[in-house]
């Protein structure tokens, strides 16, 4: 997004009876007019208002519009007990909504996800695990005790605990009588321990010290600026940006670090504690509701100095946010792909620009967008070119699969197997990487030739042998693995075709019978805690061979790991997505970067049928900048992002016909787009043409940089009347094109 130059007006106060606009999360589009309550209200105050027969919470957005029948305007019921939302956050919500073409209420919801707003916390009863054991144990009771233990020492409200266990509140109440669950008054928010930026950090290398100095100077400027911190895996990017955090804390401002994966937080918390003497606050889906309420308040009151979190942490009501770090900034999980479609990396830049805060985008393999912004001088760029200490970058080689003699249903080539054996003999770890969850991607009937597909999606059912089920990776639907073909009903002819990580585990067990094999795949772990525990165990040496999906590519440190074997380096290069080269390059480099992070040198072996492919050569080759320049040149020549702008329009509905017709009508009436020099392509079936029983069609709009694309899009879709169950979603800057 462009960086607006906004000076917030001083906060306004509205006297009793004055007309105010109150924005709620109800889908009404804009703020509604109310009269300020007795005692008045500040702009940004959280209030309770009548809405039809109901009472809902909302935020005083500003002065009322007065465009409503004045005799019908009702009064705000009361001002809630919550820190008011600052001008800055309201401006951010407005800008983010305008950029992503999201209705304001939906954007507000992202910023008010702390439940229980307004209920004074001291009035609440909370529940936690006690010492006692019930005499009579039932399934429901066991689930409550499990749920209470799962969240550690934290207390939940009655409803939260009952919901977490999937039982009625009565079951929890029953356990209170036995002493197995304790009922307590919720304590007033306990503050976080202080982080001390002046504790001595690690002595830095010359490279690191130079980068640190530049980041510190930027931080001290007190002005907006974004820095791309590009450093090979293991070069100490984290050490460097923690010094920017230290500088921010010294200024008395708050720092936010976004991580792409919750499983990464454990290691990160430990590092923060080592540097600053205390742990930061956390905000992500693994944080309990009670804790979220506390974190939300602490952020607003400036008592949480440092926050680490998932993309949604960007919408927290910080009192004085001075720095946002986006770690692994290229990671696709920063783009939220359902509900509000936004990219946290871009929104971080937007919010920082409103706040006069700094942004650090850290990655070994930046997105082409960030690379190009640095190239154009919009972002500052800092490079760390060597790994810290004795660790050197892994050597990378290809294994030409055309030369390898492999029996059918085997995927580990003799050359790769030799390398694995060699590592095992030395007591080191090896990783086999395959970006495919489950046992086999295809289940095929050898009698009729049909593949088993999802009934609701345009996708195959994937066999998950550990779960003993077929699972659709699009909608999550699953069913037991049948013995007979669902099409021809012939028994015993179903065959698993192709490899998934579970099948790799089988092959590894057969090839290396003495090795301990661990599979790391998101669907094998019920909770983030289990996954975290498994990662820690592996790092400590509890496995010899790690088999993983892209989950393992994301920045984990396995000190004993010295070999990475990529089972199918060609996988990402198939298909027509223009980003395929960029994605494959990033993924392969990231995976290879897992090897040899400590003293022992690492080796990465890429199994490929096309070793001459320019992307495969770029992955191996030293000249990374040449790869980025070539990619950039191609995108520039075709006017594609980041040198042009794209928006996707996804239309969906239960019947294919009306969805397609609507797409055709939109494509025909493209005058508002043509006026700004934008072109529309499609309608065409969306990358996944049917999901959850809904047919999906996509139009792509391509525009030169610098045109007012959003307003043209808004004008273009404004006449659309969605009949029946048709839906329209706009995806600004789509991930795939
Ligand atoms: P990156 O984020 O670039 O992958 P890290 O910051 O995780 O790199 O550093 C890789 C490893 O090297 C970590 O274990 C880190 O503690 C260590 N390290 C990096 N720089 C230093 C330093 N200056 N002194 C001591 N250890 C360091
Ligand atoms: Zn499905």
From TrEMBL:
Region described as Disordered: spans on this chain: 183-206
Q: What's the protein called, per UniProt?
A: Replication restart protein PriA
Q: Which family does it belong to?
A: Belongs to the helicase family. PriA subfamily.
Q: Which residues form the Helicase ATP-binding domain?
A: 218-384
Cofactor comment:
Binds 2 zinc ions per subunit.
Question: What are its E.C. numbers?
Answer: 5.6.2.4
Quote the function comment for this protein: Initiates the restart of stalled replication forks, which reloads the replicative helicase on sites other than the origin of replication. Recognizes and binds to abandoned replication forks and remodels them to uncover a helicase loading site. Promotes assembly of the primosome at these replication forks.
Sorted alphabetically, which keywords does the UniProt record give? ATP-binding, DNA replication, DNA-binding, Helicase, Hydrolase, Isomerase, Metal-binding, Nucleotide-binding, Primosome, Zinc
Q: Which residues bind Zn(2+) 1?
A: 445, 448, 485, 488
Q: Which residues bind Zn(2+) 2?
A: 454, 457, 472, 475
| GO annotations of cellular component type | primosome complex
Carries keyword Hydrolase? yes
Say which species the protein is native to. Citreimonas salinaria
Cofactor(s) this protein requires: Zn(2+)
Instruction: Supply the Pfam families for this chain.
Output: DEAD (PF00270), PriA_3primeBD (PF17764), PriA_C (PF18074), Zn_ribbon_PriA (PF18319)
Give the GO biological process terms: DNA recombination; DNA replication initiation; DNA replication, synthesis of primer; double-strand break repair
**Is DNA-binding given among the entry's keywords?**
yes
The enzyme's main class, written as a single word, is isomerase
* Basic and acidic residues bias: start-end ranges: 195-206
Under NCBIfam families, the record lists: priA (TIGR00595), PRK05580.2-2 (NF004070)
Query: Which Gene3D superfamilies does the annotation name?
Result: P-loop containing nucleotide triphosphate hydrolases (3.40.50.300), PriA, 3(prime) DNA-binding domain (3.40.1440.60)
Per UniProt, subunit arrangement is: Component of the replication restart primosome.
Which InterPro entries does the record associate with it?
DEAD/DEAH_box_helicase_dom (IPR011545), Helicase_ATP-bd (IPR014001), Helicase_C-like (IPR001650), P-loop_NTPase (IPR027417), PriA (IPR005259), PriA_3primeBD (IPR041222), PriA_3primeBD_sf (IPR042115), PriA_C (IPR041236)
Q: Which reaction does it catalyse?
A: Couples ATP hydrolysis with the unwinding of duplex DNA by translocating in the 3'-5' direction; ATP + H2O = ADP + phosphate + H(+)
According to the UniProt entry, its GO molecular function terms are: 3'-5' DNA helicase activity; ATP binding; ATP hydrolysis activity; DNA binding; zinc ion binding
């Amino acid at each position: 997004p462009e960086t607006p130059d906004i000076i917030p007006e001083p906060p306004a106060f509205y006297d009793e009876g004055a007309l105010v606009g109150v924005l709620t999360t109800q889908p009404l589009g804009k703020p509604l007019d109310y009269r300020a309550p007795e005692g008045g209200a500040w702009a940004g105050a959280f209030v309770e208002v009548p809405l039809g027969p109901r009472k809902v919470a909302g935020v005083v957005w500003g002065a009322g519009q007065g465009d409503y029948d004045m005799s019908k305007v009702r009064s705000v019921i009361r001002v809630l007990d919550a820190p008011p939302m600052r001008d800055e956050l309201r401006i951010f919500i407005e800008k983010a909504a305008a950029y992503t073409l999201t209705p304001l209420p939906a954007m507000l919801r992202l910023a008010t996800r702390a439940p229980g707003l307004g209920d004074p916390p001291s009035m609440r009863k909370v529940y936690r695990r006690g010492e006692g054991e019930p005499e009579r144990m039932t399934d429901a009771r066991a689930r409550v005790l499990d749920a209470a233990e799962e969240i550690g020492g934290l207390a939940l409200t009655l409803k939260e605990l009952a919901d977490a266990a999937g039982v009625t509140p009565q079951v929890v109440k029953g356990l209170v009588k036995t002493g197995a669950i304790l009922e307590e008054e919720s304590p007033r928010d306990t503050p976080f321990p202080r982080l001390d930026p002046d504790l001595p950090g690690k002595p830095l290398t010359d490279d690191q010290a130079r980068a640190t100095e530049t980041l510190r100077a930027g931080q001290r400027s007190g002005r907006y600026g974004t820095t791309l911190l590009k450093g090979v895996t293991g070069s100490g990017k984290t050490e460097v940006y923690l010094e920017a955090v230290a500088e921010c804390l010294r200024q008395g401002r708050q720092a936010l670090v976004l991580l792409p994966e919750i499983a990464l937080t454990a290691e990160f918390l430990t590092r923060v504690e080592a540097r600053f003497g205390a742990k930061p606050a956390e905000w992500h889906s693994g944080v309990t509701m009670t804790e979220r309420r506390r974190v939300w308040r602490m952020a607003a009151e400036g008592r949480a100095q440092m926050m680490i979190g998932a993309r949604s942490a960007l919408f927290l009501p910080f009192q004085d946010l001075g720095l946002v770090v986006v770690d692994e900034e290229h990671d696709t999980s920063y783009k939220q792909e359902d509900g509000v479609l936004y990219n946290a990396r871009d929104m971080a830049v937007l919010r920082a620009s409103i706040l006069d805060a700094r942004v650090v985008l850290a990655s070994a393999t930046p997105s082409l967008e960030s690379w190009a912004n640095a190239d154009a001088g919009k972002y500052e760029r800092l490079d760390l070119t060597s790994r810290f200490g004795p660790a050197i970058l892994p050597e990378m080689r290809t294994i030409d699969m055309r030369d390898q003699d492999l029996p059918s249903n085997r995927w580990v080539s003799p050359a790769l197997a030799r390398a694995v054996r060699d590592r095992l003999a030395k007591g080191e770890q090896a990783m086999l990487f395959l970006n495919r969850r489950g046992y086999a991607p295809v289940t095929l009937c050898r009698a009729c030739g049909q593949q088993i597909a999802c009934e609701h999606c345009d996708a195959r059912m994937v066999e998950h042998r550990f779960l003993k089920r077929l699972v659709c990776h699009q909608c999550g639907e699953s069913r037991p693995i049948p013995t007979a073909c669902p099409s021809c009903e012939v028994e015993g002819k179903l065959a698993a075709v192709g490899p998934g990580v579970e099948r790799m585990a089988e092959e590894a067990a057969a090839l290396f019978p003495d090795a301990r094999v661990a599979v790391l795949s998101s669907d094998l772990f019920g909770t983030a805690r289990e996954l975290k525990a498994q990662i820690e165990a592996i790092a400590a040496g509890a496995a010899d061979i790690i088999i993983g999906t892209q989950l393992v590519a994301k920045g984990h440190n396995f000190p004993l790991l010295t070999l990475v074997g990529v089972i199918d380096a060609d996988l990402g290069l198939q298909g027509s997505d223009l980003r395929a080269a960029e994605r494959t390059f990033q993924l392969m480099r990231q995976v290879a970067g897992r090897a040899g992070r400590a003293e022992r040198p690492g080796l990465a072996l890429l199994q490929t049928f096309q070793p001459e492919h320019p992307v495969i050569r770029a992955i191996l080759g030293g000249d990374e900048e040449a790869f980025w320049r070539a990619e950039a040149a191609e995108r520039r020549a075709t006017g594609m992002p980041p040198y042009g702008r794209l928006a996707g329009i996804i239309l969906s509905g239960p019947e294919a016909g009306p969805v397609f017709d609507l797409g055709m009508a939109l494509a025909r009436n493209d005058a508002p787009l043509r006026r700004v020099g934008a072109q529309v392509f499609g309608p065409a079936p969306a990358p996944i043409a049917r999901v959850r029983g809904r047919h999906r069609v996509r139009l792509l709009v391509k525009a030169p940089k610098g045109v007012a694309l959003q307003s043209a899009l808004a004008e273009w879709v404004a006449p659309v009347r969605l009949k029946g169950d048709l839906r329209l979603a706009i995806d600004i800057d789509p991930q795939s094109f």
